[in-house]
Design goal:
By secondary structure, the chain is an alpha/beta fold. It folds into 2 domains: 55 residues, no CATH class; 169 residues, 3-Layer(aba) Sandwich (Rossmann fold). The chain has a 5-stranded parallel β-sheet. Helix 7 packs across helix 9. The radius of gyration is 29 Å and the shape is elongated. The termini are far apart.
Length: 285
């Protein structure tokens, strides 16, 4: 037959609590109330840890990133005060949206994931998906006659992160479903969206300027747009290793290329005009 101490060890282990609580209690000899308080505090912390782990898994975040890991000095175009305001999560309570625009590798997804993780730690639901996967998933559900049921997955969380809008164009069905989703979440819950395209190019993403305008109308009515104009983080280390030319060299090459492109047509045009004039003189002396 197990002793009370052995049973306590077994119970603590099954609850995932620290077994050294018993050793500490035997040395400090706390009151029953103090020992129970410490025991319950450990259980509360353990349950919160398990809850957060489960919520983070359900959110389908591609990785875990924090604001502290973001190098603001590398992206001077960002306003840290604006990011701090977003970290307050007030935009979620106001059912407002956040849109990160910029070229690949500047940290749009990093900041989106950090906001989603902060929301989860604040007890709010979040879900992450790319625009292409979203359209593919809901398009399949539509063809199988279960769109309404599947749509609830993307309507339920307080924060929906839609990543990589514009990397691949959407077909007519994907565009229509995307519009339905944005409309259903409008003024009810928040969307965090990343795109490598400026708003003026969204007509090409959705294949229809009218629907693109309607989507933007709902997204931007209550929103914050963060435009990140900077270099790719992924190229930073490659530049240091000499695998990618310095930015000044890239600019010089680009300027030379543009100059050549602008001069070449003029040269060809001049040559063509000269030959035409010569031919005209020969035809009419």
């Amino acid at each position: 037959m197990n002793t009370p101490i052995e049973r306590l060890h077994t119970a603590l282990e099954s609850l995932g609590l620290k077994e050294n609580l018993l050793e500490q209690a035997s040395k400090k000899e706390p009151s029953y109330a103090d020992f129970l308080d410490e025991l319950l505090s450990c259980e509360v912390d353990a349950r919160r840890t398990r809850y957060l782990r489960a919520k983070l898994q359900l959110a389908h975040l591609p990785f875990l990133k924090t604001f502290e890991q973001f190098d603001f000095s590398f992206q001077p175009s960002l306003d840290e005060r604006q990011i701090r305001e977003l970290r307050s999560l007030r935009f979620i309570h106001e059912a407002s949206n956040v849109i990160f625009l910029g070229p690949p590798g500047v940290g749009k997804t990093h900041l989106s994931v950090a906001l989603a993780e902060a929301a989860i730690r604040a007890g709010l639901g979040a879900y992450f998906i790319t625009a292409h996967d979203l359209a593919t998933d809901l398009g399949r559900a539509y063809r199988e006659g279960r769109l309404d049921r599947r749509m609830r997955i993307y309507l339920a969380p307080k924060v929906l992160v839609i990543d990589e809008v514009g990397y691949l164009p959407l077909d007519d069905l994907g565009t229509t479903i995307f519009f339905q989703l944005v409309s259903a979440r409008y003024e009810r819950s928040s969307i965090i969206l990343t795109s490598n395209k400026s708003y003026g190019d969204w007509g090409s993403i959705f294949g229809d300027p009218i629907i693109a305008t309607a989507i933007l109308d709902r997204l931007l009515h209550h929103s914050t747009t963060i435009n990140i104009r900077g270099e790719s983080y992924r190229l930073k280390d490659r530049r240091k290793a000499g695998l990618v030319p310095p930015r000044e060299q890239e600019r010089s090459a680009a300027a030379t290329s543009l100059a050549s492109a602008s001069v070449a047509p003029k040269t060809r045009q001049k040559a063509a005009l000269g030959s035409t004039a010569s031919e005209a003189k020969e035809a009419h002396p």
